[in-house]
Fold:
Amino acid sequence: MSTADAELITSSLVFHRVGSAAALRAGEPIGATIEGQAVAVFLVDDEFIATQGICPHATGPLHEGEVEGRTLTCPWHGWSFDLDSGVCEDDPCLQLARYPVKVDGDDILVGL
Ligand code: FES
Structure:
């Protein structure tokens, strides 16, 4: 993908407020719904990471999962996901969608 293609894709995104940066910094992941799509946002090593909010295994609520290092563990059956790639460590055929995040003041904005 060229830089121009990446810019085109980014420019077509609409960023939606999903919650507070202060709440995330206090250790509370965000679970939100944007236009009917569940998303989850985590703070990992001072980086905001947004993923799909529903586990691809059996629809567990990922914002309720545990984050250790850069790995997210689903609260329902304990499957783990690499937050950098989205790939499931228990079934590499599964991969979380990741979304761009912007911070505006205290607002966390996720682009879809
Ligand atoms: S629903 Fe997430 S591991 Fe089963």
Summary: The chain has a mean pLDDT of 92.
